[in-house]
């Protein structure tokens, strides 16, 4: 976990050398260069995801919006980013996905918080760039998520839950390092799952599936009507997807203490119980493809 000097080890008597300073469990991540690379990757990837996704949703000509065009644009954008930065941060690009990994005890609270902050900032930055390069007559509401006139907020929330649930299940299944004989492309599988969600969800809610994607145009247009739907639905859907996969469909055999240790950001250990000492920081396996 340290390059160069090794971290202090426990002595034979079970106590640390009096001259060493104990590092809180989560602090080793803050001292890791790969941790900050992952945070930047989430910012960078979400910026591009929102820029291309929202950009493809703008109306450049009169007439109805082509749902297939928008669905493919979002799906291909995510597939490209999973391929580009998946091995760096896991390419969550979505606070609901990060929350799902947190519920499954596959990342620390600190990392999850930093991921979500980077995703929200990246989304706003992407929407701001799109706003600045788009003619005023075309900008409209920047593809703000809105409910279909005949859809209630309860129905919309349920739709968002189901859309995000299937999406997170696909991510957990394709990212799972325990899955032997993994077939096909992880990036395309995730991209197609997002495309599927848009093909259905755009008729109901505009297919949010991602609080950061919904938050960015709401901030720039100052329109937060029913905005909570696009947080509550995806967050619940992501959490349910995590619980369904990690505790029912393909359980991870971890004790409560192991899960708490991961959430606190404890440093990964080798089988002998000693912290791993390698040239580069160790990242969670679920964050790499």
UniProtKB/TrEMBL annotation:
Mode of membrane association = Multi-pass membrane protein
So what does this thing catalyse?
Answer: H2O(in) = H2O(out)
Q: Where is this region: Disordered?
A: 265-289
- Is Transport set as a keyword in this record? yes
The family database entries (Gene3D superfamilies) matched by this protein are listed as: Glycerol uptake facilitator protein
| Keyword Cell membrane attributed | yes
Quick one: where is this thing mainly located?
other
Q: What stretches pass through the bilayer?
A: 35-55, 67-88, 109-133, 153-174, 186-205, 228-250
Keywords attached to this Swiss-Prot or TrEMBL record, sorted alphabetically, are: Cell junction, Cell membrane, Eye lens protein, Membrane, Transmembrane, Transmembrane helix, Transport
For molecular function, the Gene Ontology terms on record are: cell adhesion mediator activity; structural constituent of eye lens; water channel activity
Pfam families of this UniProt entry? MIP
Role according to the record:
Aquaporins form homotetrameric transmembrane channels, with each monomer independently mediating water transport across the plasma membrane along its osmotic gradient. Specifically expressed in lens fiber cells, this aquaporin is crucial for maintaining lens water homeostasis and transparency. Beyond water permeability, it also acts as a cell-to-cell adhesion molecule, forming thin junctions between lens fiber cells that are essential for maintaining the ordered structure and transparency of the lens.
**Do you know which NCBIfam families this protein is assigned to?**
MIP
Which protein family is it in? Belongs to the MIP/aquaporin (TC 1.A.8) family.
Whom does it interact with, and what assembly results? Answer: Homotetramer; each monomer provides an independent water pore. Two homotetramers on opposing membranes can dimerize, forming a cell-cell junction. Interacts with CALM; the calcium-calmodulin/CALM complex interacts with the cytoplasmic domains of two aquaporins, leading to channel closure. Interacts with BFSP1 (via C-terminus); prevents calcium-dependent inhibition of the water channel activity.
Q: What is this protein called?
A: Lens fiber major intrinsic protein
Q: Could you tell me the gene encoding this protein?
A: MIP
């Amino acid at each position: 976990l340290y390059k160069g000097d090794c971290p202090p080890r426990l002595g034979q008597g079970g106590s640390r050398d009096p001259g060493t300073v104990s590092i809180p469990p989560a602090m080793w991540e803050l001292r890791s260069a790969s941790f900050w690379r992952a945070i930047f990757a989430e910012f960078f990837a979400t910026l591009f995801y929102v820029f291309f996704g929202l950009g493809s949703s703008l109306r450049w000509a009169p007439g109805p919006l082509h749902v297939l065009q928008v669905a493919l644009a979002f799906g291909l954008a995510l597939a490209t980013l999973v391929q580009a930065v998946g091995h760096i941060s896991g390419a969550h690009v979505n606070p609901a996905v990060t929350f799902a990994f947190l519920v499954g005890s596959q990342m620390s609270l600190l990392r999850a918080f930093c991921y979500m902050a980077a995703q929200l900032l990246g989304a706003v930055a992407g929407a701001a760039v799109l706003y600045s390069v788009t003619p005023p007559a075309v900008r409209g509401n920047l593809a703000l998520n809105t409910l279909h006139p005949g859809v209630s907020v309860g129905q919309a929330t349920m739709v968002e839950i189901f859309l995000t649930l299937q999406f997170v299940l696909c991510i957990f299944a394709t990212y799972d390092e325990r899955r032997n004989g993994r077939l096909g492309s992880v990036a395309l599988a995730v991209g197609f799952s997002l495309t599927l969600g848009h093909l259905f969800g755009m008729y109901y809610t505009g297919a949010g599936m991602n609080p950061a994607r919904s938050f960015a145009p709401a901030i720039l247009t100052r329109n937060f009507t029913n905005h909570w739907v696009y947080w509550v639905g995806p967050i619940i859907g992501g959490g349910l997807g995590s619980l369904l996969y990690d505790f029912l469909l393909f359980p991870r055999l971890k004790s409560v203490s192991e899960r708490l240790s991961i959430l606190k950001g404890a440093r990964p250990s080798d089988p002998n119980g000693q912290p791993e000492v390698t040239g580069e920081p160790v990242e969670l396996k679920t964050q790499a493809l």
